[in-house]
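Z., the sequence and structure:
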Amino acid sequence: MCNRYENRGSANEIRRLARALERELSTTSATDNLRPADNIYPDQDAAIVRNRGDGGLELIMARWGLPPIPGQSAPITNIRNLQSRWWRQANRSLMTDAAHRCLVPFTAFAEPVRNSTWFVVPGVEVACFAGVCQPWHGPRLVEQPSKKRREKEDRDWILFAFLTTDANDIVRPMHEDASPVILLVADEQAEWLAGGEKSFRLQRPLSNHLLAIRNEREKLSS
């Protein structure tokens, strides 16, 4: 599982990503001046890029974690087994319709959550996880004025999660079970956003030479 990542990409860097897709990108007041996020965890807000109804794209803030499977309490942050009954039948439209597809921008991800090793895609400003998103109404944790702990409130949300796959040789020594599905090139990103089951072929590990372990000393000095 991947339950910690960062996104230090700016709105302008994500606009360049959209231009490579030949799609217009709109922003909201929350994403027009996107702030760097060094530690994004489940049930926190993060930026995603989703399809607009007019053929463009929009950069919005969404909450990480789809509604839990009945009988469980934890939001679903990662999606692995696309052939399971839960994804193939109960949530088929969520997994296949273009309206639910999104890209999740990131600049590094960590495995495992504690004592983490950080992984980056060298030479790429902002990479993307293959994500899905949906509107939802229900309780999620919200910051409270003058309180240290968040409390649950019923609200309208946009929720998201992203796909995982087998770990490649770079990630496996730190986390042998899984790694996020990473989309680097415009053709792959466009195929994912278009929806449909054929795009499930993109659920595969990133080639070893495209991923690297980040030198934390370099990060601290930057």
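The chain has five helices and 14 strands. The chain has one domain: 5-221.

Let me know what you think.
H.
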